[in-house]
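Trying the structure run again after the queue cleared.
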Amino acid sequence: MLQIQSFVFNDFQENTYIIWDESHQCAIIDPGCANASEQKMLTDFITNNQLKPSFLINTHCHIDHILGNIFVAEKYQLPLHLHEGELFTYKDTDRWAAMFGLPKFEIPENLVFIEENQEITIGNSTLKALFTPGHSIASLSFYNVESMMLIAGDALFHESIGRTDLPGGNQERLVQSIKNVIFALPDETKVYSGHGPITTVGHEKKFNPYVGILS
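Done. Tokens:
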């Protein structure tokens, strides 16, 4: 059974996730650690819990979700897993970095592209990649059926949805992703978003103020 730990990192208050099972193999998803203190929080948790990082994954590549990519890739000698379509988003990051006074971004050289409905094995557990574009051009969400958990990136939030005014955003596509993909999961599914608290599919169907748009 998968376990999950979240960290709120960087000035954008982004949720970084570590997930692992009884094998102690773990995946680091959307590392937003932006400074030495945040990097230490991440690595201390991994060390103290005797975890073995085996995957570095991006749900999407907006600036707040990739700040720790190079650090994690180099620290644990991991390739970066992402949808190939997100390279468009990643390559646009330097423009956004300049706006926020951040240095030029590097894209890890070792890339592995994830396709829609591909399954990723972490120890004894499996994550299924669901294609949920709209917040960005090729966002992925990751679903584990046994734990009934979804790591949704910035597609769906607690009583909100991802913004669509950034490069690659498209409101119609996001609406369809939520309606046809995320809302097709069981109501009990716990949704771990890129920002804010945990929610469930059932809660969002009932209380999300955008439900009228989605129905």
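The two ends are 33 Å apart (CA to CA). Worth checking whether this holds up in the mutant runs.
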